[in-house]
Amino acid sequence: MATACFPIARRADVFDPNLVKVVLDHHNYALYFSRAPIPWARDTFSDEQESLPDDYIALG
C-alpha cells in the first residue's frame, strides 16, 4: 500500500478540511492523517503563525 503526498505550500491549505494532512516519520512512512491542521492545539492554535508546518497533503 502506498500514499502519495506533497509538502504544504500555501497557508490556506493548512486550514482546508477538504485536504487530508499526513505526518511522516524519518523513513517517510505515514504516521497518521488528519483533516485538521497538525499539530492542532485547540485552545492556542493561531492562523497568524509565521511559518508553515512541516506536514504534507495526501494525494487521492
Structural class, from secondary structure content? mainly beta
Q: On the 0-100 scale, what is the average pLDDT?
A: 80
Taken from the alpha-carbon principal axes, the silhouette is globular
Distance between the termini: 13 Å
Descriptive tags:
60 residues; mainly beta; four-stranded antiparallel sheet; 4 strands; 28% strand
Your description of this structure?
The chain has a four-stranded antiparallel β-sheet, with no helix packed on it. The chain has 60 residues and is mainly beta. It has a domain at 1-40. Strand 2 (21-24) and strand 3 form a beta hairpin. The longest helix is centred in the N-terminal third of the chain and has 5 residues, at 11-15. It is built from one helix and four strands. It is globular.
